[in-house]
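Quick one:
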Amino acid sequence: MKYRVLNRFSACRLLLALLVATFFILGCEGENRGASAPAQQVQPSMQASMPNQDAAIEVLKARLFDDPDNSALLSALGDAYFQQRRFDEAIPIYRRAIIFNPEDFDALNDLGLAYHYTGNSQAALEALERSISANPDYKYARLSKGFILLSLGRYEEAEAPLRKALALDPNGNIGAEAGRMLGRVEVMRAAN
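Output:
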């Protein structure tokens, strides 16, 4: 009898942890992964110090204690750090996730953005190239690459990935953001 109660308690604790993590992930990401859209990161994050994100981080860490090789949990923890603009903490977590799932194009994209926000744009571009290689139709990686190239002043190089992002999502938010960035490329081209 005691064994059965302990199992129910453990199962309930596990279920609660998964529900909190799922709520966090879906609440922060919606249709798109929050960490993936560079335009959202240009503006200061309004969610950077929300207590539910701290709780989600703790839940994810607890789950990873029991399952340290789970790439989905690692990516979710990286996303939680990213949402709080804790890029230095997100980077090693994304790198671990990629070790266990080298073709995780979304984690590679987010790793690239985290590298960029910590001042390592070369590593960022390398991670984004790996993301694009893993999934050539991943519009977020194309937008991220264009965003980084544009922020580095490499306007001509930014044009191709931005055009591809626009082509992949002509009527969506990613396409709209790519179009705005392409407008900046045109302004810079006209100025030179």
